[in-house]
Amino acid sequence: MNKHCMRKLTAWICMFLTLAGIATVAKAGESYLSPSALVADNQTKTLYIAQATAKQVAVFDIAAGKVTRTYSLPGKPSGLALAADRSRLYVTCASTKGRVHVVNPRTGRVSYTLPAGHTPMAPVLSSNGKILYVCNRFDNNVSVIDLASRKELTRIPVQREPVAAALGPNGRFLFVANHLPISPANIGLIAATVSVINTETKKVVTTIELPNGSTALQGICISPDGRYAYATHILARYTVPTTQLERGWMNTNALSIIDVGKKELIDTVLLDDVDDGAANPWAVGCTSDGKYICVTHAGTDELCIIDAPAMMNKIRKYHADQRNAQNRTIGQGDYGSYGSSSTPSSNIPNELSFLYGIRQRIKLCGKGPRALAIVGSSVYVAEYFTDSITKVDINKTTGTKTTALALGSTPKMSIRRRGEMLFHDASLCFQSWQSCASCHPGGARVDALNWDLLNDGIGNPKNTKSLLLSHRTPPAMLTGVRKNAEMAVRAGFRHILFAVRPEQETVSIDKYLKSLRPVPSPYLVNGRLSASARRGRRIFSKARCASCHKGALHTDLRQYNLGIGDGLDKDREFDTPTLVEIWRTAPYLYDGRAVTIEEVLTKYNPDDEHGQTSSLSDKEITDLANFVLSQ
After folding, report:
1. Residue 396 has pLDDT above 90, yes or no
2. Shared fold status for 31-120+132-157 and 421-515
3. Which residues pair with 269 in a beta bridge?
4. Could you read off the pLDDT of 475-523 as tens digits, one per residue?
5. 458: nearest Cα among 512, 486, 431, 495
6. Each residue of 327-346: pLDDT tens digit?
7. What confidence tier does 455 reach under pLDDT thresholds 50, 70, 90?
8. Which of 96, 132, 259, 394 has a CA between 20 and 30 Å from the CA of residue 12?
9. Phi and psi at residue 78, in whole multiples of 5°?
């Protein structure tokens, strides 16, 4: 039996023991817990667990191995931070008008709330405990909150969807992981970034670009010695046609290493094996002695444990060998290169065996691992879909040991919930390289990349579409090559995951996708159109945008040749997209050439085929864009 099969067998055994021996099945309709964030109190050996669906924080006694209390919250908790003196627990709750709830850990009561932005998450306390930094995901900024005055001092703009942050040594710099790239999708280098904020000046001092194809950043942490930052992300091979999956032909899964002092990328290592992907890396953390880096894999239900000193020594040796090899250089910025712009000659991001012998892949007992917390030599991993935790004990002498820990009774999984789990499950894919969520992260939305899928020929890449409302806006795909979303889901399994799955699985995914609801736009003011957007609504009709983008979903469900096609797509008709949640789906047009809606209306609409906008003033263009982005 090969290692891939062995891991799968171990997973099923572990899952069976969890569900049969620990968890009890509750009545149908009972809400799920969905653990999504963890923070550890190392002194009292307590875990605080944000349970998103249940809208509560659970208190887990490590010694007893069980939940002892739960604290109810007014919203879905998305992140946790614990004061150094353990007197306050800061809980971000995801909502349009975000809040940080300050909880007394002893009583479980919310003492007071602090202001934040749209969908706050990943709270980080300053070194002296006086400032709280909060990532406002859909405002694309970071809140700086003074805890003494309980006031927000400022919001620092970053790039796109900040989802995680870590404070460097002495608290001088905050490293922020931006979930998605912000560039056009039809250029030679497309990558998500890490923003570095000077906490004294409260400004971004540099933006670190990750290797070409980096997207879906999820986690970031600082090594205990303060020398390195580690960021988890997908490294997409978007420059080649999607004809196969072997050797990570579409998506590989990566850890980028940043020099904290120099504030630059050192290199990027792949977390996969040659014939076995480690899909969708999520959270990352280090043991207190700095010996190990731990990464959760949401797609393959694993914990990756890397020997940190061995990895850094191997990277340094590799770079030294590269400098000494005059004939081994790759031109900076070459299209199709997956090295970084700061280390153009490195081939490490293409080495699937680079971590061989210095990394373990541990199969977890539950499904959907997200956050992790490290207490001594034990790693606790929150498992979103099975309302559970796996405890992984790291012992260099006796080897790792996993223990399944239930967080409560497990309700019967609905068809929709099962579909959501399957959407994120890379075991459905050939060699586990990716899941549906790899190209549609963030709740079945976009990865901001162009892909050359084979459903409409080869050599004509298309931008990834959000799957929100896909079942209500047929046909599917940008050129309408699938009659409806049901056909597209099944074709996706055959031609993108390279697998044939039972019909009940695709039915479940259909149910999940149909259940998706739009997130209110950050361009709204108190849930309503701004004055600018109200003016833009009138211009929307005046410019004849409403002739195609009509009705509640702002689409007539038809296809048009607007003269925007290029290359093999010249003279092709494209589907009229819904404008609902369009603020979230940049870049725009079929090949992602437009970064902003303003560019769609002006730069890429010279002949007024895409709305009669050439006679509009700059102010009118701004108002029109604000209306569109408010949908």
Report:
1. no
2. no
3. 255
4. 999 999 999 999 999 999 999 999 999 999 999 999 999 999 999 999 9
5. 495
6. 444 444 443 455 554 455 68
7. confident
8. 394
9. -125, -10
Note the pTM of the prediction, 2 decimals.
Answer: 0.93
What class is the 531-629 domain?
A: mainly alpha
Domain boundaries, the chain: 31-120+132-157, 421-515, 531-629
The single residue listed with the structure tokens 């400022």 is 154
How far from 448 is each of 65, 74, 210, 237, CA to CA, in Å?
Answer: 42, 33, 15, 13
pLDDT of residue 24: 29
Q: Which CATH superfamily is domain 421-515 in?
A: Cytochrome c-like domain (1.10.760.10)
What's the rounded Cα separation, in Å, for the pair 563 and 549? 18
The answer to whether residues 339 and 328 touch, using CB atoms and an 8 Å cutoff, is no
Residues 6+ apart with CB under 8 A from 491: 455, 482
Which residue carries 């065996």 as its tokens?
353
pLDDT band for position 15 (50/70/90)?
Answer: very low
Contact 526, 440 (CB under 8 A): no
Query: Residue-wise over 52-79: b if at least 16 C-beta within 10 A, else e?
Result: bebbbbbbbebeeeebeebbebeebbbb
Residue 14 has pLDDT above 90, yes or no: no
∠ at Cα 504 (503, 508), nearest 5°? 120
Give me the CATH code for the 31-120+132-157 domain, please.
Answer: 2.130.10.10
**Are the C-beta atoms of 461 and 239 separated by less than 8 Å?**
no
Instruction: Tell how strand 214-222 and strand 203-209 pair up.
Output: unpaired
